[in-house]
Amino acid sequence: KGIVIEVEPGVYTENVTVSRYNTYIRSVLRKTEQRTVELRGTLTINCTSANQKYNQVVGVEGLFLNSTASVPTVSISGQAFHTTYLKDCYVASNNINSNANTLKVFNTATTASTKIVLANSIFLGQKAGADLLNIGGGDFKIDTCEFYYSSGVTGFGNAINITGSSLVVADR
Fold this sequence. Notes:
Layout: E1 3-7, E2 10-12, E3 16-18, E4 23-27, E5 37-39, E6 43-45, E7 57-61, E8 64-67, E9 74-78, E10 83-87, E11 90-93, E12 103-107, E13 115-119, E14 122-125, E15 133-136, E16 138-143, E17 146-149, E18 160-162, E19 166-171
Parallel strand pairs: 1-4, 2-5, 3-6, 4-7, 5-8, 6-9, 7-10, 8-11, 9-12, 10-13, 11-14, 12-15, 13-16, 14-17, 15-18, 16-19
C-alpha cells in the first residue's frame, strides 16, 4: 500500500512534507545526468505512524533539492521508525545568509531510530558554519556520495556532524 509520485521535468517552488511511510517521490527520468526536476523549497520527512516494520520506507530519487530558506533543505525528524532513501539526488543549501544545514536529522525516539540511506548523491553547502549533514539520531548508510562547500566559503562547518546517538556506515 504505497504511494509513488513521479515528477515530470521542471522547477517546482514549494515546500514538501511527507508524513506517510511507503511514499516514493521520484523523477520520471532515472539517470543521474538527467536531473531536471528541481524542488526550490524544503523537504520534511516526519512519519510518526511508522512502527518498526521492515517494509515502511520513504524514498526520494533523482531530484535536485535546492533551498534558499534559512532552515535545512532536507529535514528528517520525529519518532519515525521507517527507512528513508535519498538516491541519485543533488541537495543544496543556497542561503548564503544563514547557517542552515543541507540535511538535518533529529530523532526523538528512545527505543529505535530512523534508518537513512544516502546513495549516489551530492550535498552542497553555501554558508560556512553550517554542517552539510547534521545527524542528531538515526542510523546512516552513506554509499558513493560527495560533500562540497561552494568555492570561496571560509569559516567553520563540518561535512558530517554527529551530535546524537547514531551509527554511521560509509562505503566508497
